[in-house]
Sequence to fold (148 residues):
Amino acid sequence: MKTKSAQAPGKIRSQIAAMPFRRKADGTAEIMLVTSRTTHRWIVPKGWPIKGLKDHEAAAREAREEAGVVGAVARKPAASYTYWKRLDDHFQLCEVKLYRLEVERQLADWAERGERRCQWFSLADAADLVDDPGLGAAIRALADDAAA
Fold:
């Protein structure tokens, strides 16, 4: 169950996200992006922290619920970025901690399968497709790490 922490207006809220990636046979890395439910923009699986779960565990849960992917998640965030989240009656500034998730498999069915599109992209294409500059920079950094 997802929970939202109550915070005073004007405060930055925390979110967690997974950066689901895999390596192709030739060694190049790909990342899975999902569409947001309301604006259908390409994003990574993300959500609010979940009470009782560590942030990296919550990021893995978001990846499973939103994209149906499971795998090994890093315990420490690889990057973070801020963005304005559209809520029903206002915008909320959020700081997102990104956790790498090396995908081992994709499930045949998952919670939000009918609500979102998900697709594998090269890291360069994914960095260009996402609207949030901070997320694009984090994906480019993942590409730099993959090339090293």
In short: The domain at 13-147 is CATH 3.90.79.10 (Nucleoside Triphosphate Pyrophosphohydrolase).
